[in-house]
Hints:
The structure holds two protein chains of two kinds. By secondary structure, chain A is α/β, with parallel strands linked by helices. Chain A has helices at 35-65, 75-87, 106-115, 121-147, 149-161, 163-169, 174-195, 198-214, 220-231, 239-253, 255-262, 266-278, 287-290, 292-296, 298-310, 317-335, 348-360, 372-395, 413-423, 435-445, 471-476, 487-492, 494-506, and strands at residues 6-9, 25-28, 429-432, 448-451, 482-486, 510-519, 522-531.
Amino acid sequence: MSRPRLVVVQDPPAVHVVDPPEEPIVTHDPVTLRPSLVRRHVTWARVTIGACLMVIVSVATFLRLYGLDRVGFNSDEAVYAGQAASIAHVKELTPFFPIYRAHPLLFQALLSVFYRFEVSDFIGRLLAVLFGLATVVLGYSLGRALYGRRAGLATAAILALMPYHVITSRQALLDITETFFATLALYALVRYGTSKKSMWLYASGAALGLTFLSKETGIVLVAAAVCFLALSPDVPARSRDLIGSLFVFIGITVAYPLSIALGGATTTGRSFFVWQLLRRPNHSLFFYFGTALPAIGLLVIVVALAGLVLHRRARSWRETLLLSWILVPLVFFTLWPVKGFQYLLPIAPAVAALAARTLSRLPLRRGVPVPKILLSALLLTTIGGTLLVSSWSRIEPTTGTVLLAGSGGLPGGRESGDWLRSNVAPDARLLALGPSMANVLQFYGNRKVWGLSVSTNSLHRNPVYQPLPNPDVAIRRGEIQYLVWDAYSADRSPKFATQLLKYVNRFHGRVVHAESVKSGNKVTPVITIYAVRP
Amino acid sequence: MNRVICFLSVVLVWAGLLTSPAGAASTASSTKTPIKHFVTLMQENHSFDNYFGTFPGANGIPPTACMPKDRRGLPSGCIKPFSIGGRASENLPDSRAVFNNQYARGAMDGFVSALSARAVTADLTMAHYDESDISYYWDVARQYVLFDNYFSSASGGSLWNHMFWMTGTPGNPKAEKVPAGGFGSLPTIFDRLNAKGVSWKVYIQNYKPAETFRVKGPEPAQVIRAPILAFARFVDDPRLSAHVVPLDDYYSDLAKGTLPAVSYVVPSGPSEHPPGRVQSGEAFVGNVVTALKSSTAWPSSAFMWSYDDWGGWYDHASPPKNADGFGLGFRVPALLVSPYAKRGVVDHTQLEHTSMLKFIETNWGLPALGTRDAGANDLRSAFDFGQPPRPPQLLSSEAPSPNVVSGKSAIIYPAYGGAVLVALAFLGVAAFRTRRRKRRAAA
């Protein structure tokens, strides 16, 4: 009597050009296979996958939660958390943070629900962590839908360990929510590609709508989706469905202008739009090549590219989709004058999926003594190791005086704000070097802080910031009682740092509080608060 | 025998402790109220109605007020009080003769006519400032205590009133000038404080130690504003003159936490004396108060400032007569800032400059200087010592406001929540259909 034969096909062969099935297929000999054996194997596969995914999520959770609130908010985090507090009508913060600023308010609105009970930086970051972990899990689904379960696991693992994703999801920023919904939109497009069911095209439009509501730069991904559909004749889309999904997208994104109009902030919104268009470049053209791409992981990028080269004959609409998802934002944000470290985060899952594709389809010839799965695991471990080391080093608070916006918390900011709240009169007014430090001190200190570098020319300043036309006179009149110098702003704008220290000398500046960072035996002052008087 | 020796030893030790300087200091530092630091400042030449005549809740300018241009009954009409707006201020006469003419034997109708004969714009006396001119003072009045029944002590000018502020007497009753040899042995509040071992200082803005009563010619303004410099002992004795210091020391004492128990602050340029700019004086007062509020002394302090005399400006309240023949003068503004001050109260208690002396004497257990301070009301009605000390408010209305247009938040939850629900519905339907299709295929 022959034994029952079970064949589990997990991935299509590397050289196949045809689409892999949506789910792994269990085939069996209908005559000889016992149902209990099939169930056992399916269960075993599920348990293995589940266990692997649990390990990945656990590591991702640890990396994202470890020392989460050791350092307080940076400027952007303070602004978003402040907006959330204003939405929640927290009276201590409402005077400093207008609800309507540059960006849509999905993340802030979600955070405001928690802020109705308690305002804390930990809660803000925890929400970001949850979106980050959800993206890791979604990364598994994306990889699996594209290239099978093994690739799904590799995608999730790379995302879990990727420094770019780790450090961004440890901050209360909009980009992490944007990335989650962008990944959801990408997943929906993949499902459309595999099933050709128009409902998934509508779903991708809906997810892109939420991406936009998280951060308006998500609209770039609409161009990426259009680019994909235009370049992929094997994924046809009917005009009716295209227009329909566009309407879904618009219908969802209309929440942004609608809330601005009904919230009485139309002028504010318009001012921001004009300002964003006319802003001067804040970084060099190839800023992302020196910051974001290394944070994604050079080895990850190399592996992803290697897969594209090695499997060039096996190229399908999947790679077109992923490349569109990566290249359109990369080109756009490289050319766009305003740059931010975390702006490219939505492309991270696509890069991870491409790298996972390579890892799950190593082009080994027959006769190679090493099993394919072992080699894949070895490569994945190597990549994971480098990512882990890099992530670990980056989640440590900076001990220098240079802080790239969006790359982490601001050492000393929370402590200085807490000191202000405990020791300075509630209606005291301060002058900091720039609006970044002002935001942080206003969030933690609940005191009005002006920024010396805020231009009196309305074309050269964020519309929400008010300039202090004549700081000298303001100090002479006693309207400003404290000056705040900080090393991070001083590094970016030495001219204003010199000006502020002139005021310190001119108006009998006396140090009343100082914060410093310690690196080995070296202690570097980062924030100094001076009391001044005419 | 041993018990007797032990008893005597204990008695001697206690006696030693009680007579030691430390013991004296502990006695001196004890106060009858939680106020451990009293700071007082005297600005110049404004009447109550001139600054707070339109302040809500205060005994301000009567609606029917109209001052005749001529008191002799000629049909020349009258002048109603008016907001000074952008008009320049002038140094109106404020001598005793002018006071008498304006007082008009209690008729209080000579404010314009008394000035008509002099080389000033007579109608200016009826001008008044309001919130837009002195917003900081009005803010203080709204948050702390404004006195609307506070009179200058003498129906004369600066020197007499400053003397009442420091000594409780006019100093030289014959004429409003410093005698050639100074004020001799006339007791001052500083003598009382010294005798009790209570710390004190006089902080003088732009202090010039050489400018004392010994300067030839008219008295320097510094001596009029700080008559302590017209006492030989406070000029010559280094132990006493060390208490008279530049205003910079006030800020450094606050920073070091060494503010004395009693501080007199004497302004220089920004005293608000017309035609000086009122806002400069306001900023000066604001800075001095802010420094106190920003210091560790704040929780146990009180800051009071007033104006030496009415400066020729109209005030409608007839001043009560005093037995010593020197007053009272017309009402002047007076405000109290303290963590124990009542919040936003207009205090109607009748007070004068010696009321501050009375408070110091009562608080630190000092004997009165004379009949005037002994009979004056003190400031207790303005305090509420039952309340916990209030946190400081710096109050700087002139500063640009945060001007945050927060926008309405009511629309946010429906708009964004609706968008999320719609999006989830699309995704859910897509997922559900796919799953159903698979199940059908499997079946």
